[in-house]
Model the fold of this input.
Amino acid sequence: MKKTIFSILLLFTVIGLQALAQPINHVLYSLPNFTENALWNKAVSEQNGMIGSDYRGKEYIGPAAFQRDYQVDGVKTAIGWVLTLGQTDRFNFWIPQKLPGENDPYYKRTLSGNIKRHHIAEVEKVYPDHDLNIDIVPLTNYQYLISQAHKPERVFLTKVDQKVNDAPPCPNNFTEVEAEIDTQADVKELMNGMLSEGQLLTLYGPWIYDKGHCCHPEIHPAEQIWWMKDKTCVDCPQTYYCALICDGSQRFWWRNQMDGDNKMKPWGAPPIKGTFAIAFETEIGKPAQNFVVNTIDANNVKVISNSNKVYNLVFGGNTLVSFNPNSNNFTVTFEKVGILPGTNKIRGFLVLETTVGKVTQIATRVTKPILGSNSNLTINIPQGSDPNLVDQSIEEQVFKKEEGHYIFSIVNESVRGDVNIRYLKSQGKGEIYSKNGSYIATHSNWRTSWQNIVKYGDLHLFYDRAAGIGEVYSFDQQNINRLVKSYSNWRRSWDIVTTCPAGILFYEPTGHAEIYSLNSDGSMILKKTHNGWRSSWKNIVMIDCDRSVGDDVCAPFTMLFYDPIAHTGEFWNMSADGNIILKKTHTSFRSTWQNIVALDNSKVLFYDRTNNLIEIYYVDGQGNMALRKSYPNWEKPLTDITFLRGGILLTTTDSYQLLKYRVAADGTLTKI
Done:
């Protein structure tokens, strides 16, 4: 699979290079004030940086329910006909939901929240189910999808399904919305492997309740899904993962599968058009935002002739935003673009539209018997007819429908969250540096009481132990920064706050630790609690694995725990869900290491301020250590060491003097 994806990416990269010679420029001759702050903030703070298909407005689905045959072991039976006194062998199974008092209320909706669990169902018997199921705990502004939804109820269909499939009874209250997807088996496996518990996920589709499963609320079928990259990546550009799926179960394709009046286009019928409106912010005089698409998996994606070009947003002869689709699958526009008053900052939306699934008219004439006679009726259907306007009894004879999907990433190469902060505590300042050590900006009037500043992907978590305050900020290399979220009344006993593979690790010397996910909107959800840990850990550090040895060796990640009192260092492997396994214990560590800093590619720097000693070690996946370089009698005592990709910033104890060094693969330090 990895080789296949790599080949696809390489192919599209080559195609993309060929397109560079013919850009399409969207030229702005004036800049109005930006007036879409609410929408922009919603995208950035709640929806993983973008607005989905409701960017274009509501997509109505009507009040008609979808029905399902009564089956046993996947075989349709006559029991449904008997149970309904000969009226039907189908039951209203998936029912659209609406908000009280809303006009024209039935439409597809967006859900954003954290993944509680995800799996591919393996249910047979009465109602077979092999969907990819994703349980989402909604963010605050999306809780209405539970609070205003149908309440838990064990109706007839629930009783039948639960009895045969041995499911548990209905809950008293719902706490998650379930998103369901059905497509090709290997694609479901691919997507299931790309998701993780606690991750912030945004999706779009019909809001319904499912009578077969206690009437619980669902986005079903979830046709559009997107999320941000894994934040444990140390040196990654801003990356969005997107999926547009035309449901392959065929349960939502035809109007004769629906019950009730006002039947509109069936919810999941192909083709499915998806809108991905990316919220961007750039600045006049700064490098352009550079978005590039990489295809991960695709089937039946609509081809748009001559669209594989680079699209530029230009003002005053300068490119503000550039987009390279690397395919002929997108229409591209720049919309709602404006300037923030009193600044040089430009905001707007890069709007991408793509379509999956296919419908083909296969007949222009259909003959059907006239009820009560021996005659036939011939119906002519002009080529190009709308499937949703022909007689539903002949729709399947006239049209062929095919599923489709498009899974892709959008990489913003120019916006990286790997800026580094040098905190000048006594001065109340923070200096921002790029990954290569270039100075970006200085921020003043900072608290002088921050105990920890923890970098996690695109975000930095600040912790003031004395005040019980936590604040989450975003920074980037264009010095765009903002307060994402603020917390008060935090526990004041955390000794260590640090990054770990599962999120942010909080440790107190009672031996208690808690791990939280940190999402793009600054929200934090408890993922794992540990008790009974050693009470004397002074440092806990996540090791950046040497990727040259292979991803399989690098996962799960390695954590170093240091106890100076016992001269002990322990290496634990930690998985993405926060479980840990001890790999190696060392009992001859110095008791005087003040700083332990993870460098790149499995290197770790130890600094002993008492003896002014620096040592750099290589650590393998089993916790074995090999000394690379030792620097006794370092030139000046240090108070802080900040890692940069390929280098370090050393802050001296005398007036916070800054020294920059490059770190070679063998641990050699070279002054820059």
